[in-house]
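Z., the sequence and structure:
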Amino acid sequence: MVLEMKVPSPGESITEVEIAEWLVEDGDYVEKDQAIAEVDSDKATLELPAEASGTITLKAEEGDAVAVGEVVCLIDTSAEKPAGGEEAAPKAEKAESKPAEAAKESVPSATKETYATGTTSPAAKKVLAEKGIDANDVKGTGKDGRIIKDDAVKATPSMGTPGAGSRGSERKKLSMLRRKVAERLVSAKNETAMLTTFNEVNMSPIFALRSQYKEEFKAKHGVSLGFMSFFTKAVVRALQLYPDVNSMIDGDYKVTYDFCDISVAVSGPKGLMVPVVRNAENLSFRGIEAEIKNLAIKARDGKITVDEMTGGTFTISNGGVFGSMLSTPIINPPQSGILGMHNIIERPIAVDGKVEIHPMMYVALSYDHRIIDGKESVGFLVAIKEALESPEELLMDNNVKKALEL
């Protein structure tokens, strides 16, 4: 029996997907539920599992856009499993084995180099030729001053002498997810009255709390006490104080939410993803850390679902993990605001008339000025600053142990 595998619907409003990569090859034997392909929608990258065991025949190429419900492969369920019980290995693993074998055959062994004639080994000659470097300009470290491959690899063209380095280029189609991200970012710049306001936060109180309780917190809950739980708690408090920031424009109407679904920008293998922490206002520090860790792992492993990427009333983006000192984050439409976190640097600041060194972070709020006025935007960011600089009082109700469930 030949089974037709059709593209399942990844979620509402999605009518087509793109074959990002086949994980098997035409004619392979696959097991039921084995991941056979990665498909991109405009919201996430998903794995396509085999619906039955058998020999697979591919009906679409990598990069093809296929409609939901369209046949992408056939599985011959009457085919017998190959002797030895070895099913199809992932294509990536097969690809890795070939270069390894080729390298094994092509790399000269130490014994062969020993018998090479002249003052430069054949392997070194090849490397120097590719680099466009004269052997006379290279000092050999081999026996009797012989130039070996390692000398050639480390050699650089002399100053002022143009080398014959690579000047190639590659043209590669953007994934559907990357194209959609690009479209949304341009739309946000063109269709919103986006403005950014800045402030700085003294992170000393949070550093002190984490230093005192992080080991106990991790031992009890199995997750680290990071910065994101403090920032998420601070954002929830500020959204409740300034509900306009937790609103969206829908035509001629303003939609304001009484819940806080916080989108958290994370970097995945396919690019930036923004999974959502639902009803963050009801979560404890432990709950926020556990949920963010779960979503980050799913994004990294390509297991994130469309539902986990959909919605969100406000976004937090942490460019500080990559070393960013200051930025103007772009709104994640149709949301009206996004908070940018940055790296923490020890800087001298004035405290009670004295200069002290403290860990400081710049924070940025980009917002849609059509719906959020300057007073609300500045007040919102000040509320973030106040909460982070007085976390015990404003985020923990003066009971740290209870707040951290210790």
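Residues 99-118 have pLDDT under 50 and may be disordered. The first strand starts at residue 2 and ends at 6.

Let me know what you think.
H.
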